[in-house]
Design a protein that fits this description.
The protein has about 325 residues and is of the alpha/beta class. Strands 3, 5, 6, 9, 10, 17 and 18 form a 7-stranded mixed β-sheet that branches. A 6-stranded parallel β-sheet has the order 13-12-11-14-15-16, with helices on both faces.
């Protein structure tokens, strides 16, 4: 089969199709999205990474022990846990130290014609959710994870830094809480996409830092951490959503003096994302900048790295 492989070099290659192990399901991938994490991997975010990229996907079940799954449209939770450790037994499978992660950690991903995933990770996509929105289930779940970690409501002033792929989803999630939301970004056309959320939007060049109860950093840029810290109230909370290939240094004194809470926020639950899509019906299809055939996936990555692009989709099959 064809797949997007990275081993220091990004390319589309012919590789062996996956075989289902015990308790696994074989999915024929129809479409997959390129995430910022995929881009950062190609920049060295995970040293020594070798394998098939991709963890945002929609597909059709091709092979499964459960005959009722055959032909069903699905996606899959990306963290594959051992099910036996103390984290798994306490419901924290996403933090299992023995986990593999689809297209990220010791597990081939979904930027391919086929992908094999554990049955327990498979999530059925309701018929009323089109592929153009279902493609966003994984990053939308990550955006909704913020709500699992923090109480946010109309009494809170919230600043979101970032108008990109993840920022767009985080903005819609935060806006749904009724909080007083301000979004800062670098791109007028991206901020304009948030007009229907009721959020206030500000171009970075015209932003004057004011103190907020909660600041969410979703820019993908290490330089935004300083802006986040200067924009949060004493005893406020900074939520970090970005992952970077390179680190940065900072003086933690302000965290101590102003008693700031720093929250790392990663993956969320797909069930919450599906419910959000069903209940709010957000027009996420307008976030798709381009679609490419699998043969031209390297070109898709070039497009995805562009500052003007939002979600770039790779079509793996019909």
């Amino acid at each position: 089969m064809k797949a997007v492989v990275f081993d220091g070099e990004l390319r589309v290659d012919d590789v062996s199709a996956p075989r289902c192990g015990a308790g696994e399901v074989l999915v024929r991938v129809t479409k997959a999205g390129i995430c910022n994490t995929d881009i950062e991997i190609t920049r060295g975010y995970i040293p020594g990474f070798k394998g098939i990229l991709g963890h945002e996907f929609v597909g059709v079940v091709e092979e499964a022990d459960d005959e009722g799954l055959a032909g069903r449209r699905v996606s899959a939770e990306i963290n594959f846990a051992c099910g036996r450790c103390v984290y798994c037994l306490s419901g924290l499978q996403r933090h299992c130290p023995n986990r593999t992660v689809l297209g990220i950690q010791n597990r081939n991903g979904a930027l391919a014609e086929y992908v094999a995933v554990p049955r327990e990770n498979v999530v059925l996509i309701p018929d009323e959710i089109p592929d153009s929105r279902a493609l966003f289930i994984e990053p939308l779940a990550a955006a909704l994870e913020i709500m699992e970690q923090l109480p946010i409501g109309p009494a809170h002033s919230v600043l979101l830094l970032g108008d990109g792929k993840l920022g767009q989803l985080v903005a819609r999630v935060l806006a749904s809480t009724g909080c007083r939301l301000t979004v800062v970004g670098k791109h007028a056309h991206k901020l304009a996409l948030l007009a229907d959320t009721g959020a206030s939007t500000v171009m970075l060049g015209g932003f004057r830092a004011a103190k907020h109860d909660i600041v969410v950093e979703a820019t993908g840029s290490p330089s935004a951490f300083g802006l986040a810290m200067s924009s949060v109230k004493p005893r406020g909370t900074v939520v970090l959503k970005s992952t970077y290939a390179r680190g940065f240094s900072f003086n933690p004194s302000a965290i101590v003096v102003d008693e700031i809470t720093i929250v790392g926020s990663r993956c969320g639950r797909f069930a919450h994302a599906i419910a959000f899509l069903q209940d709010t019906k957000p027009p996420l299809e307008k976030l798709i900048s381009a679609e490419y055939d699998l043969d031209d996936a390297v070109g898709a990555f070039t497009m995805a790295r562009s500052h003007t692009a939002l979600k770039v989709v790779v079509k793996a099959g019909g």
